[in-house]
Specification:
With about 190 residues, the chain is mainly alpha-helical. It has a domain at about 65-155. It is built from 5 helices and 2 strands; from the N terminus they run ββααααα. A two-stranded antiparallel sheet has the order 1-2. A hairpin with a 2-residue loop joins β1 (about 1-5) and β2. α3 runs antiparallel to α4 (about 120-155). The chain is elongated and about 90 Å long. The two termini are about 25 Å apart.
Length: about 190
Amino acid sequence: MSTEQNKGKARTTLPRSSDLKPVESVPSPTEGRVSGGRFAPGNGISRENRARHHIRRLLGPAANDKSIAEIQSASLSLYSSLMRSLPCQAVPVRSLVALQARHTALCAYWTEWAVNVGLDSEQGIAALERASKDGARAERLAVTSLDIATRLAKAAPRRGPTTIEIINRQAAAMQAAEKEKNDESSD
């Protein structure tokens, strides 16, 4: 980002095309793969792929039964919402959150089922007990997943400043230099 003097004020200007640095090309889709199309050993593209597969299995396989499909859909949406709220996305956190989402969806299912069959009936009471167990499990998993996510976020190595932070620092330094230059020229 550059600045120019215009009517006595420092104004930012867009970079010229000659000022832009060349950008690396997009990697080839076959890069990091062996001749058969499988990932080559040591390839980072497939990192955590199996973990994502197992987490999908924790949320439930594709189902033909309507009620099972509803539970799976609810657990998937809960999982996505819960993951957005946590400070760390590591595999241990994702697996705990997947279990939490599944138990929360099951708690809602059994509660709804108990209401439909009658809360004071024998089946309703059994369904409420099941819902209570799933709810308690979901609560314990919520506490544990938040604790582990917080600890892992604190333990994660601090990366360097982001691109936006670097640009903001450079812009502030340039503005300070321009201001200092203008102050010197006005004296």
